[in-house]
Design a protein that fits this description.
7-stranded mixed beta sheet; Gamma-B Crystallin, domain 1; about 15% helix; 2 helices; alpha+beta; G_crystallin-like; about 150 residues
């Protein structure tokens, strides 16, 4: 191949590489909460490993009735009856849509959602410490979002 042809091919490849394609971010897990049964009413959406210590800060305390959890087989959602991950809890594993939280309807005050499986001992630790696991984003009672002890945004 002549040198000029090599330059043309190299140039064409370089310009093709420079063209940016749209990137669709699919951060998992994704969690959608609804205030009413059958995925109706006020809706909140979350993504990524996250804990919310007090749903009052989002005006969603004791109103959760249905949810949709997107993720992997290991994905874990833990709903807690009281703020700061205290009280009775319900654990859900894997992607699922729950149209009615029959035995936990209108009782959730805090939650943790994780892409990886949270063991019973890890969930017990969350309850004992009143804090999401290391590396999780966390909505604090004052509305600040923190990760690893750093403020992210208000």
């Amino acid at each position: 191949m002549p040198i000029s042809a090599k330059k043309a091919v190299t140039s064409a490849l370089a310009s093709k590489a420079a063209v940016k394609k749209p990137v669709v971010l699919r951060t998992l897990p994704r969690l959608t909460l609804w205030a009413d049964a059958n995925f109706m009413g006020t809706r909140l959406r979350f993504r990524g490993n996250l804990g919310v210590r007090d749903l009052r800060v989002l005006s969603f305390n004791d109103v959760l009735s249905s949810f949709n959890l997107e993720g992997r087989r290991e994905t874990t959602l833990v709903l807690f009856q009281d703020i700061n991950y205290k009280g009775s809890r319900r654990v859900f594993r894997g992607a699922q849509a729950v149209a009615l939280l029959s035995d936990f309807n209108d009782l959730t005050s805090s939650f943790v959602v994780s892409l990886r499986r949270l063991s019973t001992s890890q969930i017990n630790r969350i309850q004992r410490l009143g804090a999401a696991p290391f590396g999780f984003a966390e909505v604090l009672p004052d509305g600040v979002v923190a990760r690893k002890g750093k403020k992210v945004k208000k």
